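Schema walk-through. Below, the input block comes first and the output block second. Nothing else is stored per chain. Lengths vary across the set, and this one has 276 residues.
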Amino acid sequence: MKPRSLMLTLACVGAVGCAGSRMTVQSGAPRASAAPAADTSTSEAGGGSGKAPMFAGSGKTGVSASAMALELGNAVTIDEREGPRAARERIAKLRAKLAHRQGRLLALERDAVAQAEARAHERAIKRRMERQIVEKLRATLVAAGVKGSIESGTRDGRALVRIPSSALFFKRGTVVTQGGRKLLKRLAPVFASVRQRQFLVAGHVTATMNKRRDASFQISSQRAMSVLRALVAAGVQGQQLAAVGYGAAGPVAHDNRGDAIELVLLGARGKRVAWR
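--- output ---
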């Protein structure tokens, strides 16, 4: 039976390329030429020729440099694949976060719009109620047969009713007449129906009534206070009322109807009034 031989290929890695030497080993006694071949291979592999040593395996066979390079290449390829995938995952997370924040922003915008609409609705209801209050005052004055123009409306966002001074005072007078007191007494139930609201009694006079400015303010202020006292005497709560005289410098001073008393509806009692 012919002896079997085992052919082993040892790969050497150099700085430029790879060179291999072949060693043949027979089963049985080693041949004389085997040792020099092994020595030559070893010296070539480990000598100072600039070539790298062989990568040893587990003991039976060696692992070639080409196998190591292949494994390393596979690892690099995997890393290259993992990079874009990680980037895609990060982008997906950022998109999800952006979508979440956009959803929150839309929800906040919807809430803001809903709140604005609710406030606008409340203001509309408030204005309608205020117009109804001053309209009751106007209707009461008209029903009482007041001579002159009884007007209701709004100024600076506040509802008001305007009463000609002739219905309450003698010409150039500052004390409410007996007929004026009866008229104001008829208004008391309207004030009582809105006890939570405040009213401003505003006195106005025309510039022709008195050329002296200080006298105009004095007359308008005295008239306003006289109306306030008459209303309190008629049963209106004093906490509901305030008085002010504008003289001839008020908002209706240059109108033919400037000589008048205005009942201006203010805010709820206990709230600070923003004077204009």
